[in-house]
Amino acid sequence: MILSDIMSKNIIVSNIKNSIYDIAKMMLENDIGFVPIVDGNKVVGVITDRDIVTKAISNVANTSKDIKNYITKKIIYLDKSNSIDMCLKLMSKEKVKRIIITDNNKMIGIISLSDILNSRYNETLFLKTLRSIYPINRNSDYYKTEIDEFYL
Predict the structure, then answer these.
(1) Residue 144's pLDDT band (boundaries 50, 70, 90)?
(2) Domains and CATH numbers, the chain
(3) Can you list the alpha helix ranges (DSSP code H) found in the chain?
(4) Distance (Å, whole) CA 60 – CA 143
(5) Neighbouring-strand partners of residue 63
């Protein structure tokens, strides 16, 4: 099975001049957490919902400002003919959940961990990839909260 068999083909992109608010609203309306950012017809970066929270909102950014200072400029991509194994290895190495899929250096899709999970492909390799992206760290118990009562 190759990436073009399971990738998402309906790509939602945003212009580099759009605001943080515009991108967040787009993510909400389309139930997505990853948006490639374009300047003209060229992909210049990507932004995730986590980027918006950790890079912009946590730094009290004005949400009406454009997103160019908050995007990830390192674009992780693979050709559509690559294998799912190759994709999972790249996701593991780069610690990402989504990869842009190309054909002759043109973006034609996106593949996510969800796409791979839904394909029921090699669940052992999938779990290994998840463990490398999301290392399990024991809480430090730095914050010891004492709760006397808990209501549901």
Answers:
(1) low
(2) 3-133 (3.10.580.10)
(3) 3-6, 20-30, 49-51, 84-94, 113-118, 123-133
(4) 25
(5) none
